[in-house]
Amino acid sequence: MSDSASLKSLYEDRQTLYDVLDNLPLGIVALSAAGKAIFINQTMADMLQLPLKKLFRSSPAERDGWLRLESDRRQMFNACLQGERFTCRAYLFPADGERVPVRVHAFPLYNKQGDTAGIVILIQNLQEQNVLEQSQREYRYIVDSINTGIVSIDPRGYVTTCNKAFSQYFGVKSSDLVGKYYPDLRAQIGTGSSLLVQALQTGQSIALPEFCHEVNGQDKVFSIECMPLQDESGGITGAFALVRDISTQRLIEAKVNRAQQLNIAGELGAGIAHEIRNPLTSIRGFIQLLKGRFTNTSPEQEYLEIMLGELDRANNIIKKFLLLSKPQNPKLELQDLNYLLDDMLKLVEGEALIAEVELVRRFSLEVPLMVVETESIKQVFLNLIQNAIQAMPSGGKLTVSTEFLQETNTNVVRISDTGSGIPSHLLGKLGNPFFTTRKNGTGLGLMLSYRIVENHKGKIEVESAEGAGATFTVTLPISNTPPGR
Question: The pTM is what?
């Protein structure tokens, strides 16, 4: 090959190299050890919106104005001349004056002898990356702000997203789930995980309006809706689930349902009680007359006594129905809750003694006086205390405690027994009309207690485990608002 042909080939190779460097998405600047520009690619000129010739003729001071490093420029230059690499963030200031964030990578430039001849600076535009990162942060903020649990999986079944609400619902950290295979979700959301995989496999949305799952020892109620993720061409790229905690909603519905039942029972009792009591009174009078016609030793006396007892029982049920309606003229009084409870316990001391039940008083001296309808509140505590004693037929301990909660401005009474407890599936039925766990009970006593406490703007809560007794907690607000008004 002739010398001219070799020179031409060398020129073409160099031009090809320059073309490659000019089309790289990185700004490239090569400086000699004296700081003179050796090479600047077209991308760098485009980033600064300046002609290449002007860049080559620029002084170090001018270059300092175009590229401002967060670190010391001399430190970078000297480090590279000593054979080290250097990375830092910086800002470009193009001709239009708009600041552009960049990342600077600098490294030594060696000659053929292997000596340091200068430095090479690579400049990466971070503007698009920053915009993408900002979008991702905003997306994450929005997803975490939604009060609905969100979890997603990729086509292989690995978890890709888990938002804050999902983590809180199921008591698991997002970092512990993301990247895990979908079977790990089964322990967190139970049946919901299989629905998510089903949506992935079938490409169809599927929903479950309600399912129960235990979280940290508590039974929770959730709803879940699973949907496939698709790309622009309709291909399945994963699936995601929207999970909602509806435990509170179901609790509210149960309370509304109970209130409706109480209202219905109260209206029913108020509507028919008087009509029933009149004939019962007449029947009772005639039975008492009949008793006078038989001797005390005649067998008819026993039957008549049974009839009178049943009539009295029916009359007591009617009385409770009447009490279920809101009191028309409540008699409000300022009461000491500790004193009132002590009176109730004295009433049942004989019954407790016979049943071998120990009565324990744990009254707080900080409980303030409060306005209540005395007789009805007495009825509540008497019902709960007697129920507790009857729940311990083989003896046990009945503890009545009081407490004042300053943060909620409420008085709290807890009545705890050491009886056989109440099965968890029956707890939600307590207070319903005619529901009772006692053989000869009517269920109206507890129902009446719920109504009285609700009329006082308070609430009754029950905690129980089968075989471990039960605790009824009565919370009453310290308020002068008349109950039932």
Answer: 0.44
